Hints:
Blueprint: H1 2-9, E1 13-19, E2 34-37, E3 40-45, E4 48-53, E5 56-58, H2 64-79, E6 84-90, H3 96-100, H4 109-123, E7 128-139, E8 142-145, H5 155-158, E9 167-170, E10 176-179, E11 184-186, H6 189-205, E12 218-229, E13 232-242, H7 256-280, H8 292-296, H9 298-301, E14 306-313, H10 320-332
Parallel strand pairs: 1-5, 1-14, 6-13, 6-14
Antiparallel strand pairs: 2-3, 3-4, 7-8, 7-11, 7-12, 9-10, 12-13
Helix pairs in contact: 2-4, 4-6
Amino acid sequence: EALDKLIDLKGSIRVFCRVQPSISTSNIKIKSPVTVEQENIAVRAVGIKKDFSVDRVFDQESTQDDVFHEVRPILRSALDGHNVCILAFGQTGTGKTYTMEGTSDNLGLVPRAIQELFSHAAQDTSSTYSFSISMLEVYMGSLRDLLAPRQQPLFRSIEGNTTCNLSILATTSGSVQVEGLTDVTVPDLKKANQWYSRERRSRSTSWTNVNNVSSRSHCLTRITIRRCGGVTGQVSKLWLVDLGGSERLLKTGASGLIMDEGKAINLSLSALGDVIAALRRKRSHVPYRNSKLTQILSDSLGDGSKVVMVVHISPSKDDVGETICSLGFAKRAR
Ligand code: ADP
Ligand code: MG
């Protein structure tokens, strides 16, 4: 509860930064342009001297446990009825999927969050909870249900076929629904993990492998929490979002489909940045409608919601331009 107060005090949007461990191929240690100290990140290179501050830095030595520890109080908010959004942002290859999914030896935020929800539910004797899980991918402005039964080869979507497209409905109560999205009730931790890993398996063997679409799509996991205690019932949503790569297009010399995919990602990420900046500055108009991503998340980013953005950066000299862009995004959100 003290932690909850602390979060409220700092506002409902928190920005973390995680620095990817350098994967050095040689013995020569090249000095990284990125140095971190507490909440500050310094970027130094020829002609570049920039400083950024965030709510919390996870340096190269940070563990999955360190990140989870920081996110845990926010999961409690989700159990208490708040909508919560945890977003992984950054250039491709900087560890977004590592933070969210992790590996079998080093579980990431999603499997840890699922575990936490069930263990809390087991301990809380005054309420009963039920959980359901949905997963979807936003790719070039269309939505794909990752838990739907499969009838068609998925690569059709890559060619622009939108048979798997879903639409977004705003209800009169202000909440948002993705029409027709599969929502699987998970009675226990084992079932929840089975669904989660089923999705991961199918995703990695479908279009993700073709042309590495995963870096140019957003992957959203939604856990719906239904809590009954006494006379009242409460529904809240926990979103765990592995965003598409934030890298700019010019560097990669992209063309054709890759270019279009990159544009779609850039557009939706800047729409997300605009929404968060407007919320942060308490603007009366929040431009949710500018992308599918922000439409879907619109009831979980604003009033009464808790948002955590984990901005991932590379320690490498070659990525310094992207690093500054990503930290600029973080700065706007604060
Ligand atoms: P992204 O999803 O941002 O494209 P990944 O999560 O796929 O990046 O990370 C790229 C590679 O680096 C993967 O092999 C991943 O396991 C590894 N990696 C990223 N961050 C870490 C970390 N903090 N510790 C260990 N390995 C990491
Ligand atoms: Mg990834």
